[in-house]
Amino acid sequence: MNQQAKRPQDDPLLTLKKSWSALYKTRREIQRQFPDFWDLAVRKKHIEIVLDEVRGGDSILDIGSSTRELRQRLVDACGRTVSYKSMDIDRETKQDFYSIDDIKERFNVVFLFEVIEHLSFEDGLQLLSSIHDLLLPGGKLILTTPNAFHPNRYWEYSHKVTYRYDEIGGILISLGFKVKSIFRIYNDAFFRRLFRLWVAAPLHKYLCVDFAKSILVVAARG
To answer: In what order do the strands lie in the sheet with 135-146?
Structure first.
C-alpha cells in the first residue's frame, strides 16, 4: 500500500474518547475566541443564520430533518438551485436517507438542529466525525443544541448530554473544524424580548441563568 495507515494515536475521535485533557485544550481555544458566553450575539431564530450562510447552488444535508419543512424555506430564499437532501432515523417520515452510513456524497452545508443532545457522548462524537467526512473542503456545519444555562432545557427527559458552548466548540475543533461563530437563540413576544435583552440581562448574567433556549454554532471543515 502506498498510503501509510493512520496510527490510532493520530485519530482525533479516538483521542477525544480517551483523553479529557485533549478536550480541555480545545475548550480553552474556544474560550479565547469567545471569552464571555454572555457577550455572544442573540438571534431570534436559527433560520436567520441559515439564510446568512447558505448560497444558491449549495448542496445541503439536513440531519434529523423530521418533516423536511426547512426545504421550502431554502427554496423560497435561494431558488431551486439549492440541492436539499434529508436524513432521519424515523422511517414513518419521507427522507432521502435513514442512516448516515448510507450517504456516499459530500455537501457544502450540513444542518444538525436539536439532535446531538439526544445521543450519548460517544455517539455524538461519532456523528460529528462522520459529518466532517461528509463535508466538502470549506463546507459548513450549522448546529443547534440546548443552552446549558437555560434550566428548563437542561432538564428535558430525552436529553442525554448537555453541552456548554465551549465544550461543543472544543469538540468541533478537535475533530478538524474551525468554529466561525456562536450565537444564543432566543425568540419571544416583542416587549418581553426587549425587556430581557435590555433590562433583565445583567440579572440573568449575575444568576448564571439564561433566557436563550439554544445555542447555535457555525463551523467549517478545514
So the answer is: 42-43, 177-185, 214-221, 135-146, 107-113, 59-63, 83-87
